[in-house]
Amino acid sequence: YLIYGKPEWNSLSFHNAQSGRALSLFTDGFGLVSYVAFSKTEKNIMTYQSSGKIMYWDIKSGKSLLPEPFSTLSNLSAISISSKKTFIAASTGDKLVVVDLVSGKMIANSKIKNIVSTAISPDGKEILVVSRDEGESIPERFTFTGKELKKAPGKIKGPYLSELGTPVYGSVYSSVHNFG
Q1: Does the chain have fewer CB atoms within 10 Å around its N or its C terminus?
Q2: Are 123 and 104 a contacting pair, CB within 8 Å?
Q3: Closest CA relative to residue 161, chosen from 113, 132, 115, 128
Q4: From residue 146, how far is each of 38, 76, 122, 156 by CA, in Å?
Q5: Which residues are within 8 A (CB) of 89 and not within 5 positions of it... i.e. 6 or more apart?
Q6: pLDDT value of residue 98
Q7: Model pLDDT for residues 56-111, shown as the tens digit of each residue
């Protein structure tokens, strides 16, 4: 599937990845989605809305996989999902937060303003953050133990920034992720 977001009630538009043909999925709509992630099988998606609502959906039927949505922090931005799909890293505007994707609870946080992008290392033990100060990109690396977030000492090694100033772990990084 190919998904793109639109600024309207039924904000996700699903397309055949090979032909580009629009698909009739989720035609009833479910609100404005700020972030979406595919399952590895592409049978399900996880959506996050700026209200803080997280939902898991079956793509073919359009039905929720949970009896009720659950909530987390609202108005998150610069969202990245871990490779094991168990947590996200995001910005609240003045903090880097790590949120559990099963409970919706904030696991850890660190004060950092003007975050424009985040990336999580493949092993989930490091989070790279790019913030802006007076038009300049400032990369910072944090270690994550699963419970605690700490600013890593020294210069950034390993992760790099793309030409657009977004964090890149390895050779490829995308803002659309797989989960499950």
Answers
A1: N
A2: no
A3: 128
A4: 23, 20, 14, 21
A5: 79, 80, 82, 96, 97, 98, 118, 119, 120, 127, 129, 144
A6: 98
A7: 999 888 888 988 888 999 999 999 999 888 999 999 999 999 999 989 999 999 99
Q: How many residues does the chain have?
A: 180
The Cβ-side half-sphere exposure at 174, using a 13 Å CA radius, reads 7
Number of neighbouring beta carbons within 10 Å of residue 114: 14
Q: Specify the higher pLDDT residue, 166 or 134.
A: 134
Report the pLDDT value the prediction gives residue 83, as an integer from 0 to 100: 87
Task: Over range 146-174, report the average pLDDT.
Answer: 61
Amino acid (one-letter) located at 59? I
Q: How many other C-beta atoms can be found within 10 angstroms of the C-beta atom of residue 33?
A: 21
